Predict the 3D structure of the following.
Amino acid sequence: MGTEARITPFWRGAVVALTVLGVLLAMNQVFFWNMFGLSLLSNSYLYLVMACFLPVVFIVNPVRKAPLAEKIEATHSDDGDTASGHRGAAVRWYDIALMLVSATVCLYFAFNGAEIKNFGWEYMAPAPATVAAFALWAVVLEVLRRTGGLVVTLIALVFSVYPLFAEYLPIGVLQGVTYDLPTLAQVHAMGAESILGLPIQTAATILVGFLIFGVALQHTGGADFFHNLAMSVFGRYRGGAAKVAVASSAAMGMMSGSAVSNVLTTGPMTIPAMKRSGFSATYAGGIEATASSGGSITPPIMGTAAFLMVSFVGVPYTEILVAAIIPAVLYFVGIFLQVDGYAARKGLRGVPVAQLPRATAALVAGWPSVVALVLLTSLLFVMNSETQVPYYVIAFLLAVAVVSRKQRFGLSEFTDFLVDSGKTLSNIIGIIAGVGLIVGGLTATGVSLSLARELVALVGDNVVLILIAGALTCFILGMGMTISAAYVFLAIVMVPAVVDMGVNPLAAHLFVIYWASVSYITPPVGLAAFAAAGLAKAPAMATSFAAMRLGAVKYIVPFGFALNPALVAQDDPGKIIFAFVLSIVGVYALASAIEGWVVGFDRPMRALFRITAGAGGFLLFLPTTLSVVAGLLLVAGSVGLTFLSKPGIPVPGTQAADSAEGPATDSTQSVSAVH
């Protein structure tokens, strides 16, 4: 039974009603409407938002989630929900009980918001408030389990009870202030550093509008537009099907911010197309997984963690948007170059032009999506309030969809849009409320600051060592947490230490986001790669390794911008341009080395030249003059000597190499020029 079967018309109406109420609350706060004289304290507002969206979690998420294999299978069935991937029985009595408890407790705290602030209920609360605090603590943990999974819930549980015994731990750096159980429950439920901390404050103000914008873009034809546009631009060139997959998956990931959801949404279209054009099943799955995992780092929308940066770094979202542009460009350029090199080695053609949509027609049909993205980006730079911007663009998209003759967008479609918005918002707010418990436990004990100091003392003045340690920590946490959950934890524990060693704050926070997201394509977890492997009918681990190879730039670029802030636009314009040009050369060298093919010169690279080109590409990300000169010499030497050597262009259909990846389907295909 799929999610749609779980959400009967009655519960569908409940989701719509709660979503509309929650969004109106957010808009009342963001636009300062003060509807019905409703001027809310910040804590009361946050409780009311949770009162609207936490019950939705228990409607749309069953007690047990479907295994990943079932989610993949659901994408091929009529009753499968590709957006959420849940399967479960109808809403049960315990779901209803949890809904009522979560709503009642949050409403109780909301109506007592002033008393909580004025009388310090965080430390001295009346008995009913203490009981309600325990109830909210338990409900939030269950919400986190249903939305984020068991691993992150266990982590949140451990850190939330950690202040009970912090004083008695034998490890000095972990020792902190100890609380009794009732006080700890009050701190978690009514304090400003735990459930109601920075993550939920950001989610309830900034994220609501941007998440709904992503849903609106999908429901008003954005997904089809980006796919058709990518087909018209890239489809005719060699490896065109894969390049289309990269572009369309990046656009979809930008809207949804979820790597696995993106794979399950776009993969059923892109992976078969890649396989038909000659890409092996393993490589096709790797391309889809790698491109999908890049959506959360791609401006202008990006993922949840990017918006959380607004509060942690204390800068406008526009500054984060600008900082993320160069790394995202490098990431996708690297994938494109590797795909082109693979297609050249395999002799893969593009799609015949007659079978492709025309770019002009795609742009004309999808003009609302183009205008919406341009409008969103320009308003972010023009308006003083970034929290209001997405609502204007959402209104534009919905208005155009309603009056458009080409698109049917009536009451049923609008209801679907609201239901999907409710699912998206409830899941994100549920995860972030649960992650707040981790923040609360570390902050209450005072350990978050001491951990950063001890980390700096441990590695001395070696910034590279702390970055490597941070990368491994991000990767490990990313295996058990969502990107936003891992980011929140590390933004408190690790980022301060990195910043103390001279790394630019924006670069440090982006470093965490990048490395937390690599777990989606890296063995042994690689959820996005495993999902793509299921769709491609390819071995899961082999697909994960293929995705890891294709996404190699994602492992290297974070070290580059952590050591060279010009790569995140934190320097003079001249230095930014210079660093960008060098990094493009570096990505070109890395892609050529990894794929074993010099794109542009159409020459296979020998093993020695691949090693030197890779080393030179890495050096070009570093800011020192010596590294730049050495990198350029290594890259130029490797590429030049490869060009001067015997061409040895493989004849299509006779390649013996890469047999494990599968041969091209058409032995008569020829190697076309790079376009």
Notes: The chain has a mean pLDDT of 84. The first helix runs from residue 3 to 6. The beta strands are 597-598, 603-604.
